[in-house]
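Quick one: co-fold with pyridoxal-5'-phosphate.
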Amino acid sequence: MLLFTPGPTPVPESVRAAMAKETIHHRTPEFTEIFLDTRNRLKRLLKMQEALMIASTGTGAMEACVTNLCKKKALVINAGKFGERFKKICEAFGIDYLELRYDWDTPAEAADVVEALKKDPDIDAVFVQICESSGGLRHPVEEIAKAAKGVKEEITVVADGITAVGVEPIDTSNIDALITGSQKALMLPPGLSMIGLSDLAVDKIGKGRGFYLNMAAELKKQREGTTAYTAATTLIIGLNEVLSQIESMGIEQLYEDTKKRSEATREALKAIGLNIYPKSPAAAMSAVIDEDAEKIRKLLKTRYDVNLAGGQESLKGRLFRINHMGFIKPYEACWVVNAIELALADIGRITYRGKAAEVFSGRYFQD
Ligand SMILES: *Cc1c(COP(=O)(O)O)cnc(C)c1O
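Sure, here it is.
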């Protein structure tokens, strides 16, 4: 079965092998060496001054950023489930927030952020997804971050890059916290989250807040090459392997391959009459809006060995999402669009002509 869900993504064999070695103790010179090496690789990937690794899924890192980096009031951009999650975290901690809501197919606008910041001087932190995975939408985060800093230099910009880091280049010059997680573009099992931090964010953390997700406590320890509590040793060893592979292939190459795969996929889908859902699609995934989404997904799974993700809430049964993150072979991505064309023919919508595979291959290999 081809796992083509936008998280979890397949874990490469070499990474599984690296994680299969004997467990080592986390308070040892051997592990500290691996930890510090991984930390340096991570900082290079994130292009941030500081980096933290936390034993939690991505949501833990989102929570840590809300509690440690918002001191007064948050501005939350909500164009899907993950934007909504920032809001729910604020509510859980009684943190005051203002929400900017958009339809799930519509990117946020920098002008709206500027207006909100000017109106409400209490806001000290902005929370936004780079790719909002619910609808496969790319927010113009770099533009939003720059505009926010234009209003107030000391504003903290927190970007959830869980489906953007390792997918596409991100200009981090105005971003203060960049969140990612293990099970998406970093091709690891779930359970490790990572946060890149700017100098401004590090200053703002101060003594930190909370206990397990106290960033000050983690920063102090992680700079020394260890973690405040037991490190997720196996996942960190896996991350080291993934990052060293990305470095040896060249991060630019990974970005380029991902972009080409996602563009070729979308052209192939359009060529067989399908509609891409978001107005500004992210490179990480392709989301298709279609009334037959569930029928198509079921056929893909039972007849063609392809596992795609569906939609949530109002998009349940009307959306399917195809992953582009990670080291994906073009022949696998080509099979996915071909299988979708076969499924459309199975339900009598079109005649199968091999059009999707033709368009994908032409775009991927011949352009
Ligand atoms: C997957 C994801 C998360 C985090 O989800 P976890 O299940 O906690 O790992 C957060 N934001 C985005 C955009 C995601 O795609």
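If it helps, The chain has a mean pLDDT of 98.
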